């Protein structure tokens, strides 16, 4: 049984990889969030959307929670313990800026870092546009979403620049790996086989 923490800049494919891992028998640990569900997330199974009040009442239940772009996200201790008892491998994603703090609580976790070279950030932009903007959106809504995407790309850029700090956490677990994601083939040809091979 392993705990795989998938991390990397916004839009690099973390949630997509979690979905693929869940199809291959890994348990996608639910993240609880007080963020509103996006239209593209109707089929997302590893996220539980709760109100701000519900989140506030659950603070003591979380192994770890953090804030990202004005919304909170957290993982519950009981959910992890339940899967440990069942002997199931767990996977979940987290932003790089919060990885260090999470690993202080879960030092046995295997970190899988999905990196995108700064020169390939147009790939991240395209992914975010496809994911977040619907054909039926009004022009005003589209403009608002594009601004939010641009803001997330700035966060992604700073996360990529801070990679040196992320690299230090690899010493905690020799199974941890970094992958350069150039397109979707990287996930299927390199990342997915590596994780499944660790089982």
UniProtKB/TrEMBL annotation:
Residues 1-196 form the Guanylate kinase-like domain. InterPro entries: GK/Ca_channel_bsu, Guanylate_kin-like_dom, P-loop_NTPase. Belongs to the guanylate kinase family. One of its GO terms (molecular function) is GMP kinase activity. GO terms for cellular component: cytosol. The keyword Kinase applies. It comes from candidate division WWE3 bacterium. This is Guanylate kinase-like domain-containing protein. SMART domains: GuKc (SM00072). Keywords: Kinase, Transferase. It comes from the Bacteria. The keyword Transport does not apply.
């Amino acid at each position: 049984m392993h705990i795989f923490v998938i991390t990397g800049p916004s839009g690099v494919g973390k949630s997509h990889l979690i979905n693929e891992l869940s199809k291959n028998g890994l348990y996608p640990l639910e993240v609880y969030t007080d963020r509103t569900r996006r239209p593209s997330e109707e089929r997302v199974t590893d996220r539980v959307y709760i109100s701000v009040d519900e989140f506030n009442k659950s603070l003591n239940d979380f192994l770890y929670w953090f804030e990202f772009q004005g919304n909170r996200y957290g993982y519950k201790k009981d959910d992890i313990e339940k899967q440990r008892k069942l002997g199931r491998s767990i996977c979940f994603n987290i932003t790089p800026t919060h990885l260090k703090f999470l690993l202080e609580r879960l030092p046995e976790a295997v970190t899988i870092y999905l990196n995108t070279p700064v020169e390939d950030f147009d790939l991240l932009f395209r992914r975010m546009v496809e994911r977040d903007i619907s054909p039926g959106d009004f022009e005003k809504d589209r403009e608002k979403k594009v601004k939010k995407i641009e803001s997330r790309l700035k966060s992604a850029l700073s996360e990529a620049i801070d990679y040196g700090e992320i690299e230090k956490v690899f010493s905690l677990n020799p199974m941890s790996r970094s992958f350069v994601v150039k397109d979707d083939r990287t996930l299927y040809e390199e990342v997915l086989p590596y994780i499944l091979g660790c089982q």
